[in-house]
Write a structure and sequence with these properties.
This protein is an alpha/beta fold and 285 residues long. The protein has nine helices and eleven strands. The chain is 35% helix and 22% strand. Helix 4 packs parallel to helix 6 (133-148) and helix 7 (238-247) runs parallel beside helix 9 (270-282). The chain is globular and about 55 Å long. The structure holds adenosine-5'-triphosphate and magnesium ion.
């Protein structure tokens, strides 16, 4: 089974190397937990390694998503759109049953065999499109079936409440349709404790525990896979910056390493971040 690097630092090691190719992942999290950020990182990783990327947005506009991407340090997103390697399908406001059963299959036929990365963000409107549970499942099943023909699928589901439990019938989703299920949880009111947990991963080992994560300007969503030692790290020093520049020759990396200089890394060690970044980029896929 071929593994695809997720593009989210730290996550691959929780998934034995990444997502399986042609699998479908559901990421569950409440508002602002980082679903769109992860989705964008997943697509970016594919684009950088020569794959195409398809962003199916069922709520926000393409312009909104592109602004979010830029604010996280992905300023060159427009160049991928111009090249045609990143495509947006805006289904907001459409009849979703028509979109999934008629429009999507036509699109898929044109893209078949392209090994793209596909994001569906968020999947929630499909769950809400029908009260009938059978119809909901049938639509989601069809959506995954169609999109998996084109590549590897990453979808998000909004969860209400902060406990990580499924609350209310509107968020009961058919997890068995997904190959991998990931939960984002936030605890606390002041100093937020964010954690990520893999609850299912078909045909792959996965970490069983919860792992802290944070947003780092330039990198986006980063999972802390180290044991917390409670010490505050030194700032990113010039030697670490030079090390990154020597090992990875990429304008994007230069930009984000420069941003890292002023980023709040919390308890994460700058050296660990730089080593993960180098590891992530040095081996071509
Ligand atoms: N430019 C930025 N700088 C620092 N942190 C940011 C930036 N942009 C986003 N974030 C962090 O990322 C989080 C939002 O992430 P994101 O939009 O991916 O969440 P989401 O789960 O998709 O939310 P929603 O359910 O509303 O769509 C914010 O809560 C914030 O903590
Ligand atoms: Mg979002």
């Amino acid at each position: 089974m071929k593994k695809l690097k997720t593009g989210i630092l730290g996550l691959d090691s929780l998934l034995d190397g990444g997502f399986n190719e042609h699998s479908a992942t559901i990421l569950v999290g409440s508002a602002g937990t980082g679903k769109t950020t992860m989705a964008l990182q997943f697509l970016r990783k594919g684009l950088e390694t020569g794959s195409d990327a398809i962003y199916i947005t069922l709520e926000e506009s393409r312009a909104q998503i592109m602004e979010e991407a830029k604010s996280m340090g992905w300023e060159d997103i427009g160049t991928y759109v111009d090249k045609g390697s990143l495509v947006f399908l805006e289904a907001g406001g459409k009849d979703l049953a028509d979109f999934i059963r008629e429009e999507l299959p036509q699109f898929v036929t044109e893209w078949e065999g392209s090994k793209a990365r596909i994001v569906i963000d968020p999947l929630t409107p499909v769950i809400w499109a029908h009260e009938n549970k059978y119809e909901q499942r049938s639509l989601i099943s069809e959506l995954f079936k169609q999109t998996k023909r084109v590549g590897t699928v990453f979808s998000t589901v909004e969860e209400h409440g902060t406990t990580g439990e499924m609350t209310g019938s509107e968020t009961i989703i058919p997890m068995y349709l997904a190959d991998t299920v990931v939960h984002l949880n936030v605890l606390g009111m002041g100093d937020l404790q964010r954690s990520i947990k893999i609850t299912k991963s078909r045909q792959s080992w996965h970490s069983e525990g919860g792992h802290p994560y944070r947003f780092v300007l330039g990198l986006g969503f980063v999972v802390d896979t180290s044991a917390m030692d409670g010490k505050r790290p030194a700032k990113l020093d010039i030697k670490l910056k030079q090390k990154a520049f020597q090992e990875i020759n990429s304008e994007h990396i230069k930009r984000i390493v420069n941003l890292l200089e002023n980023a709040d890394l919390g308890d994460m060690k700058p050296e660990r971040i730089i080593n993960m970044l180098i590891d992530d980029y040095k081996v071509p896929q």
